[in-house]
Automatic annotation (TrEMBL):
Gene3D superfamilies: Winged helix-like DNA-binding domain superfamily/Winged helix DNA-binding domain. This is MarR family protein. It comes from the Bacteria. It comes from Kribbella pratensis. InterPro entries: HTH_MarR-typ (IPR000835), WH-like_DNA-bd_sf (IPR036388), WH_DNA-bd_sf (IPR036390). Residues 8-63 form the HTH marR-type domain.
Amino acid sequence: MICVMAWGFLTNHAQALLCIAHDPGVRLREIAIALGITERAAFGIVTDLVDAGYVVKDKNGRRNRYEVQVDKPLPEALLNQRTVGQLVDLLAHTELETHDDT
């Protein structure tokens, strides 16, 4: 019997966030390829992340650079005391700089 996994634990939004955390200069085309989605779908996901304040987009010539807002709390009720930075650190083994305003 062959078992084919048709689902995953991470949404496309979470996976795109990890792509951006790994490479702040990542292109939408690269996100789309990594996630197995269209470039238009990747654009929509990144727009969602920017609009929700999880990512800041900065235009640099013809390229975009992104910055993950690591101090922003996760939206899920069960995880609302955790931050985006903690999620990225856990899943990507990436240490992102946190901004302490105190």
